[in-house]
Design a protein that fits this description.
Helix content: 25-40%
CATH superfamily: CoaB-like
Order of helices and strands: EEEHEEHEEEHEHEEEH
Radius of gyration: 18 Å
CATH architecture: 3-Layer(aba) Sandwich
Structural class: alpha/beta
Bound molecules: cytidine-5'-monophosphate
Largest sheet: 8 strands, mixed
Number of helices: 5
């Protein structure tokens, strides 16, 4: 991987989960470790890009070569940070597992048990970061991720279209792959093609992914 296939390009990567606070001590989160997104950020930097990494709550060191890291907690914070740094970027890779919903309100004090009664949490839908970028007149080349437990290809192709993405990296979650694991396997889809990146360490996979993104970027934007 000697080729600096992203030399001179600005790349923004989002990674990790989001935490949506319920009260001062509780939140709704997900099982994303941030490893895939951090590996992608590192691979993009190795490929010569100027990388900004927007990270949800993870315990990972900033990868070598990453120019700037912004730590956020909630989907709303991630949305704001990405919107700000993406101006002037050439490629946005949304590898974060953004929470789809957040509690309607964050309780000021710790919620108490209700003496055996059910507790109902009202949730509001979070903005879709990728889709909101795609809706802007001028936006970077957009790459999304789709972590699915079933119907991987049809869900991924649907997301590619619906969110207005240039490429989507789909992985099957489960069976020792996906969240909280060292390995992953990805199928990449774009409007008129696809590529299989078989099971490998996330760092290896990230380099292959960056190579593919660079070629497709050059084909449609170069
Ligand atoms: O719809 P789903 O969450 O499966 O889509 C996954 C892709 O969309 C990921 O690239 C993720 O980062 C992005 N996404 C987003 N904003 C959201 C939800 C997902 O950018 N609110």
């Amino acid at each position: 991987f000697g080729d600096r296939v992203l030399a001179g390009l600005k790349v923004v990567v989002s990674a990790g989960p989001t935490y949506e606070d319920i009260d001062p001590v509780r939140f709704i989160g997900n099982r994303s470790s941030g490893k895939m997104g951090f590996a992608v950020a590192e691979a993009a930097a190795q490929a010569g890009a100027q990388v900004t990494l927007v990270a949800g709550p993870v315990s990972l060191a900033t990868p070598q070569g990453v120019a700037k890291r912004i730590d956020v907690r909630s989907a709303a914070q991630m949305h704001a940070a990405v919107t700000e740094v993406v101006a002037g970027a050439d490629i946005y890779i949304g590898a974060a597992a953004v929470g789809d919903y957040r509690p309607n309100a964050v309780a000021e004090h710790k919620l108490k048990k209700q003496n055996g009664l059910d507790l109902t949490l009202q949730l509001a839908e979070n903005p879709d970061i990728l889709a909101s970028l795609a809706a802007q007149q001028s936006h970077p080349f957009l790459v999304g991720f789709a972590a699915e437990t079933q119907n991987v290809e049809s869900y991924a192709r649907d997301k590619l279209q619906r969110k207005g993405l240039d490429m989507i990296a789909a992985n099957q979650v489960g069976g020792g792959l996906g969240f909280e694991t060292a390995d992953n396997a990805i199928t990449l889809y774009w409007a008129d093609g696809s590529a299989e990146l078989p099971r490998a360490d996330k760092a290896v996979l990230a380099r292959q992914l960056i190579d593919r993104i660079a070629s497709r970027y050059k084909a449609v934007r170069g």
